[in-house]
Amino acid sequence: MECEICGREGGDILAMVEGAKLYVCHGCSSGAKIISMPRQAAPARQNQAGGGFLSSPASKTELEVVDDFGSTIRRARERYGLSLAVVAERLNEKESFLDRIEKETARPSEGLARKLEHELGIKLLEQVESSSFEFGGKSGKGMTLGDVLEIEKKKKR
Ligand SMILES: [Zn+2]
Which of 20, 45, 124, 151 allows an S-S link to 113, with CB 3.0 to 4.6 Å? Predict the structure, then answer.
C-alpha cells in the first residue's frame, strides 16, 4: 500500500495524523499517533508473556521511602535533641532497628516511615511513578511507537 502522505510504498501503518486516520509509511509515522501497526512488524515469538509494544505498559503511582532516609531521620532527631532510645520508645520500635534505619542498613516500612514523618516533622515518603518502560535519551520529547521500534531494531543489530 502506498503511504498517504509521501506516496511511497510501505504505507501500512495506520496512524492519526492531524485528526485524520491515514495509512502511512514508517518515516511519516514518526511523530504521529500510531493506531495500528502491520502484524508482521511485531516480533514473532519474542515476548512469551504476551503483550509487547502494543499493550500499553501499566503506569501507577506508589509511595516510596526517600533515598537518604537515614540521614534525614538522624538530622531531624538531633535537631530535636532526641536520643534514639527516646524515639524508639515513642514509636514502639526497637532502638537497634532504628539505628539500622539511620545507617540505612534497614529500610522502614511505609507505616513506620509515616510514624517517623509525624514524630520528627520530616518527609520520608515520596510519590514515584512506576512504569515498566523507561526510555533513555530521547525521553520527555514525546517518543512515538515508531521511535521505540527504531531503537529496538538498532539494539538487535
Ligand atoms: Zn510516507
Answer: 124
CB 32 within 8 A of CB 42: no
User: From ligand 1's centre to the CA of 37, what distance in Å?
Assistant: 14
Instruction: State the distance from the centre of ligand 1 to the C-alpha of 151, rounded, in angstroms.
Output: 19
| 3-class state of residue 116 by DSSP | helix
Range of the domain at 115: 61-129
75 plus 110 within the same structural domain: yes
| Together in a domain, 22 and 72 | no
- Give the distance (Å) from ligand 1 centre to CA of residue 54: 21
Distance, CA 23 to ligand 1 centroid (Å)?
9
Cell readout for 156 is 538487535
